[in-house]
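May I ask for whichever protein you like with its backbone structure tokens?
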Amino acid sequence: MGDPPATSTNQAHVDAGPLVASSSSANIRKERGAIAAQACDTCRSRKQRCDEQRPKCGTCQKFRLECNYREPIPTKKDRTLVEILERLKGLDDRLLSLETKVNDLSHRGSVGPSTQGFPHLQTSDFASQVNSGMIDPALTATPFDLQHNTARNAPVGQDQYKYVSSVHQMLGWPAVQQLFASIQGRLPNVNLSSLERDGVSHMLGVHRPESQGLSSESTMPAERSSGVLSTLTWENIRMWSQAYFDTTNLFYPILDRQSFMQETLPSLFRSGFNNSISSTIALLVFALGEVSLEGRDGAPVHVYNGRASGVKGGTKAHPPGLALFNEARSRMGFDLTECSLENVQIFALASAYYGSCFYPMDFWRMTASASLAFQALVTSNPGELSSPRADLVRRAFWHCSILETSLNLELGFPLTGLERMENTVGLPTFSGPFCEDDVISNQQSHFQEHFASQIVLRRLLVGFHHALSNSPMSAQLGGVPTPFNSASNSPGLRQLTIQQLALQLDEWRGMLPPHLRWQEDCPGAFPNSTTDMFSGSTHTPASTPISPSMSHTSQPSSLPAVSTPSPPLMFTTDLDSPPAQYPYVLDIQVALLRSRYYYTKYLLHRPFIYKALHYPDSVTQDDALGAAECLKACLKWPVAMSPTCKHKRLVPCMFFFTQNFFGILVLLHLSTTVPLLRRIRSTLCGERFEMDARETVGLYLDWLRDLKPIDAGTAWHWEVVRAIYGLEGG
């Protein structure tokens, strides 16, 4: 392949615009060195320039001297990052104090529910619901009436606030089962009665032939090894690498850009790609870089009613970067048992690629392999946690931990034991030298603070799950001990615990840096950076267009006046206009953080929906308010809005959101057919709820419709919601 040019491409995004420049504009210029330089003690005493190599700089290696680096004085940005992470302990302490409070109450006796009951509605006539348009007339042959099969008052000792963490568990609720029974006749090819046994396989589509693995090299003769590697030019591998570090590595900051671009890449280009672990990592980076480019600017995989798909680049059988990925996975066997950080990185990168191609089982298997590889690394070489790469090691740990938690809670996939290493590993601080591109990308997207905030939110979610699940299995997740003992199943205690945990979640929102905060009731607003989000004088009122897919729905003739102007919008429900462009996938980073916040809030308050569905006569005012909070938390998650939904291949762990959108669509439908939930919607959810709910249904239906041709699990989801909502055609 020859030697790389003496100068190299190093394009940085300063303005909003395309993800990266095209190869034709990839002008070569001198690689910039590291910023935030820190000389070793020897070079500092000699007052000479230090090349900052670790563990020994060039001077100390040459003269065989001891090489020590001082801990850098944290900058303002560093202090902000450290403050975010230090709040973990404070949040944990408050959760532990909740344990004491609730246990004390359980010893003194059950806490009685609110004395102010929620005004109940009598079960309305089914025909009147059909006439009002609240229920699809096609379902009138099988009326949905909770009085037939569900108890209206819980037996003594039975938990009325049933908590489940996953959508497939929620589908087992009696109210949901009744709904499914009423639509089974419209789904001749779907057996809804087997959900309790085969829920996860249905949700992931693993029973469908199209869910089988990616094409291998042997089925693609035109892309065999010699052909692929012979086409790797310096310009292409630079372009793919730059694209990877400007996208995937911002979500998963597990690789060192400076080391890869300045050392690994030139070395491999000169010597060629062999079976070394560095070659495998590089090929995975190239594959993900191609996904980044095609996933934003490639051709849509299909078009529906004139609307281009948000899945771009390649096809289901041949996604972007497949030839490069096949080259990487043909080498992975040589590195399977190596106890190194690079081994962890290989599995994590492979997991990211499978996720971009919509293969959830492969995504999980590679994530679990990365977690096990990390445990092998730290067990066999604990010195890595005090090495120059210690912070990179910690970032790899938390990346794996965040994904494991999501997979365990939503799908019940077993944990690997990684969570037991939390205290040993510690928290990342993003210390160490960074190249200028890293500095610029962090200035414009705050990816380091987004990652740190995700860690805190993950820890909160684990604590919430541990507290609410009240089962020995919850102890697998580690974190905070459950505040429930054997006597704490009383409704008052469960209600109190949810309310206290909701306050902890609100504290998380309050502790975010100002440039990551947003207006609670406006998920699509810009972050509060240089202007006051709540000051009407600094913003021009903005409105969110209604999704064209829901334009057939009747709109209210007028809306009440809002006292303060709406903040300017970063995300919109208008899916037909050209999407806005943001540098360094800022929109996806922001959308992920907010959507996971709303998911946590929705999960936390979902037990109130269970009670309203199954024990309406026992619902108190506090219960009704909790159900309203759950319904409001369902609305307009930014990841489903434009521009983020227009780049679905770039959204990490996408099937996690797909399943939750399906579950929300089921609950929103029930909230229009169950009298008590209808009353809660109309009286406690706010003036804009009905309009926002219609927009939300439009967004989530569009998400499922868009993914069904390329994702087997989503195809199953689509068949079910199409029957629930009475949709015709594709």
